[in-house]
Design a protein that fits this description.
129 residues; alpha/beta; four-stranded mixed sheet; 2 helices; 8 strands
Length: 129
């Protein structure tokens, strides 16, 4: 039924301006703003050609799961660059992270590190095995 649909994902934030700055300037992704008043929104263009819709929500609650994963060839370099850009990593007690905040494991991806956007939504950089 939807096999040919150009589906897209979306998520909410509590401050569209901070989201535009974070995704556009901090992470360096192409971001377009459209709409006006209460109908403003962002479209984030991903390297795959896909887009993600971001909308403001007054009673926003951060996603408690990873909403975007950014595959990288070198997770250590990505984590260092995030740090230079003022982005801190999240640490979860159920995962054993190294000193840099990277979880490296024999199962799943070779390495993953989580961080949040200004609205508290969880993102990751991930290096496949």
């Amino acid at each position: 039924m939807f096999g040919q649909s150009k589906a897209f994902s979306g998520f909410s934030v509590d401050d569209l301006g901070k989201a535009r700055e974070f995704y556009g300037e901090t992470l360096g992704l192409p971001v377009e703003e459209s709409g006006q008043g209460d109908m403003r929104m962002l479209t984030i263009k991903l390297g795959t050609g896909a887009s993600v819709f971001v909308y403001p929500k007054d009673n926003h609650t951060p996603a408690s799961f990873t909403i975007l994963n950014f595959p990288v060839d070198d997770i250590d370099a990505a984590v260092e660059e995030l740090g230079r850009r003022g982005v801190g990593l999240e640490r979860y007690p159920e995962f054993d992270a190294d000193a840099k905040g990277v979880v490296r494991g024999p199962e799943g991806p070779a390495a993953i590190a989580w961080f949040t956007d200004p609205a508290g939504n969880v993102l990751s950089v991930i290096q496949e095995s």
